[in-house]
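During the reporting period the student researcher (J.K.) took over the structure-prediction task from the postdoctoral fellow and processed the backlog of single-chain submissions. One of the processed entries is reproduced below for the supervisory committee.
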Amino acid sequence: MMSPLAIAISTCPNDTFTFHGLMSGAIPTGDVRMDYHLADVQELNEGVKERRFEVAKVSFRAALAFSNDYYVLPVGAALGFGNGPLLLSRDVGRFPGPGDRVLCPGSATTADLLFRMFHGESGAKVEQVLFSEIMPALRAGEADFGVCIHEGRFTYREEGLALVEDLGKRWEEDTECPLPLGGLVAAKSLGEPLLAKLVDWIRASLDLARRDPAAAMPTMRRYAQSLSDDVIRAHVDLYVNDSTRDLGSSGREALRVFAERARTVGEPCADSLVVFTPR
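J.K. obtained the following structure tokens:
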């Protein structure tokens, strides 16, 4: 029997929703065992960089650096349709400027790249922290701005924070493409037969959760960092859609534009993101 596959996903509800069927054992995988690791997006990015995971959910910004060794899977992606990173502050009425302290959720995240694309000439000082530390730091006055991801979109008003700019919306207006937030990557060394099975299993797991969302709630709640059920459901509604099941032609075009735009701001990356296509 082969060694367990090292599969790493985030604790976010959209990922645990997608993998509920597999993690619960409801989707059989034959003699292929899976060893799951759940972590923050920056840890996932670093884990793939260090080749610790064979399958992982990473930011598409990080995936640019791995495309020689990893495919993007056509299932499990989060494309932003009005749901990208938010630039937040305690104050309204101004954008980042020289000397401002701006918190981003990791140097390999799409959120950080968008800030560089749209505010790279601001003169602000960017620091990287865990995404869960950004809003508390803003609320405490320890930073001037923060680029917020994940459930922060639903809770920032409750934290007394203000929206400065929706970076995902700006991307969509500039490119006429959805924003590639994050996706599943898999080591090319796994081979096409196993990769094709993985795509089928993950897709079946997602289909199961979409047919019965209530059954997936305990799995999501277990990892959701004290989010309410309403916020969990809103998170899934926003980040899980038809492109999560299959990137399709629009998703592939968005990845092409994303790589192209990344190069324009000096991002050291491969030429493109290669989406695995089962034969």
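The committee noted the following: Residues 5-80+180-264 form a domain with the D-Maltodextrin-Binding Protein; domain 2 fold (CATH 3.40.190.10).
J.K. will present the remaining backlog at the next meeting.
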